[in-house]
Design goal:
alpha/beta, two-stranded antiparallel ribbon
Length: 312
């Protein structure tokens, strides 16, 4: 029995890469292979140009300092305060106590817990515990942050705040994030790329919008689409997608509060996809068009048909 088979995955520097699958699909085993907590029986794991499978134990320990990891159940040391939990990996790395404390204070401030440094885990909420865990994971200045079901034990509002924090850390420090989850909403909110794993095999991978709008495999469709839509003919599914996208794009414009609003006669005729760039009926770029609010330049890509004027 193989937990993982024929895995071929490349994660770019600075990406927020999602790995999604149902329970037992192998996603947690996969992320543990990335940092060699589980050693693959065959193949290679390359990190920063080196094959981790070929490193000595001392070299591997050093390489792991460039990988932070957060878990579903936080894994905090209950007998230590938030501050001392963040200091822990620095102590293991041999950092001087005063420097470790300074670094831990900076990180707890970064995650919004500057007022809870002396609190014990039992005195913190679930979201606060995960923020401590994130600060601890960042203590050794990692290049990669591995998130194994980091929001699965949290309520929706707290989940959004933790995902926002991960996205902010990625943007500010350029840290690559690998997000393991079984929730499509998590992938949709923060990930740039996604791989879908089923029965130990990567069945689909690519840009999030490509996999979401063009699911090719049954495993992908079962995650992306509601069960009632999975048996629809592809043509009908596309038509439904056009209609849905039409109302989504209008909702985003109205929510943005722009003085320029799309008329009800604005329709998407091609298969629209969220992109940084888009094209109009004549191939002209829509990005920066007066009808596009500043927060959404080039919101979509596809063929567009105007049957009415934009309303002021």
């Amino acid at each position: 029995i193989y937990a993982l088979r024929d895995i071929n995955l490349a994660i770019g520097k600075g990406d927020i890469f999602g790995i999604i699958g149902k329970s037992g699909a192998g996603k947690s085993t996969l992320v543990r292979c990335i940092n060699m907590l589980e050693r693959p029986t065959a193949g290679s794991v390359y990190f920063e140009g080196r094959d981790l499978c070929q490193l000595s134990q001392a070299e591997l320990r050093k390489a792991r300092r460039s990988m932070g990891m957060i878990f579903q159940q936080f894994n905090l040391l209950m007998q230590r305060t938030a501050l001392k939990n963040v200091c822990f990996p620095l102590e293991l790395a041999g950092i001087e106590a005063s420097q470790a404390k300074k670094r831990a204070c900076e990180l707890l401030e970064l995650v919004g817990l500057e007022n809870r440094m002396e609190s014990y885990p039992s005195q913190l909420s679930g979201g606060q515990k995960q923020r401590v865990a994130i600060a601890r994971a960042l203590a050794t200045n990692p290049a990669v942050l591995l998130c194994d079901e980091a929001t699965s034990a949290l309520d929706p509002a707290t989940t959004d705040s933790i995902l926002g924090l991960i996205k902010d850390i990625n943007a500010r420090f350029g840290i690559t994030a690998v997000v393991i989850t079984h929730e499509m909403s998590v992938i949709d909110k923060i990930c740039s790329h996604v791989a879908i794993i089923s029965k130990g095999v990567i069945v689909e991978q690519g840009l999030v919008e490509d996999v979401f709008f063009y699911p090719k495999t049954l495993a992908a469709k079962s995650l992306v689409l509601p069960e009632a839509l999975q048996k629809l003919p592809q043509k009908n599914l596309y038509n439904l997608s056009y209609l849905t996208f039409h109302y989504v794009i209008r909702a985003r414009y109205f929510q943005h509060g722009s003085a320029l609003r799309l008329s009800r006669q604005y329709h998407v005729c091609g298969y629209a996809r969220h992109k940084r760039h888009g094209s109009g009926p004549d191939g002209a770029c829509l990005a920066g068009s007066p009808a596009i609010p500043p927060a959404y330049p080039g919101l979509c890509q596809g063929k567009f048909h105007y049957s009415g004027e934009n309303e002021q």
